[in-house]
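pasting for the record
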Amino acid sequence: MSKKGRVLVAMSGGIDSSLAAVLLHEQGYEVIGMTMKTWDYASSGASKKETGCCSLDSINDARNIAVSLGFPHYILDIRSEFGDYVIDYFTDEYIAGRTPNPCVLCNTHIKWDALLKRADKLGCEYIATGHYARIRNENGRYIISRGIDILKDQSYALWGVSQQSLSRTIFPLGDLTKKQIYDMAKDRGFTELVTKSESYEICFVPDNDYRGFLKRRVSGLEEQVQGGEFVLEDGEVVGTHEGYPFYTIGQRKGLGIALGYPVYVTEIQKDKNRVVLGSFDELARDGMYVNKLIMGKYPLISERMETVTKVRYNDSGHPAVIEQTGDTMKVFFGNGVNAIAPGQAAVFYEGDDIIGGGWILSSFRQHA
């Protein structure tokens, strides 16, 4: 056993997770690689060739790195567990009129649990991933911080990882930039990793057509929801939509309606089978409610606190004041924030540190 300990590294076959394994190996850890098979494209009914983290090529790429450095590599098939949990959540959320975030859910409820269970069986003290984020222990709390490469920072997707799981987690890339990772791969002769394209799609929606996926997945969905009304903010009916699950808050393209000025989806009214449209200014909301909280830096926010809050993955963040009541956070924005979508994750930051996060329940316009 290495003095540094044994670590199970999640290896997707891409450059980031591969370099995470390489760096830990060089630092003296006893590395074991593991590639998780979460989905296969044949199950999705999509026409696109299988690529990305679940493909045979990616599995082989991860194994080749392990073989070249002389550490073991295993494949963990979690397709059944993934499908039951993540796919059902994905479809249920759209049918409920919300916009799901399956990658966050998969990280926190599937991948970490699967890795830790296998780590225990293999005698690994730690698990590691190729996320661009940092972690530290302070005052008895494990705190996730943004990676130093702001353009690649992935801390938003990790807010739901539990304190117990974080106590055994290593993020080797948190203090590095993407350019440094590319340079390290080149220096070590892993040129195939540098030229390999990266996938940013949802793994089970390989053609990015989530509407087609829903139609294939949910029998009779189109008949259940088609023919609803497009309405303006004042309730005026201006057209007919194809079914409320096929629209998301903030959507402008693909509405199939012309009103002489740009309009956006501002609200989805599932019970009325209505999709509300409005101008860009009408997208703005003054605040939101966030529930199912998982707290990070602080176990509880006992009084109002100033934060920067992200309402989606690619969001740069907005100044906000948060107020916690039990398992719900009320969030007040100093300026209006556009396209707050129920079902998405909200993450609260103090500087670079994650205070906590949760799922957006609803938004509101009136100032508190």
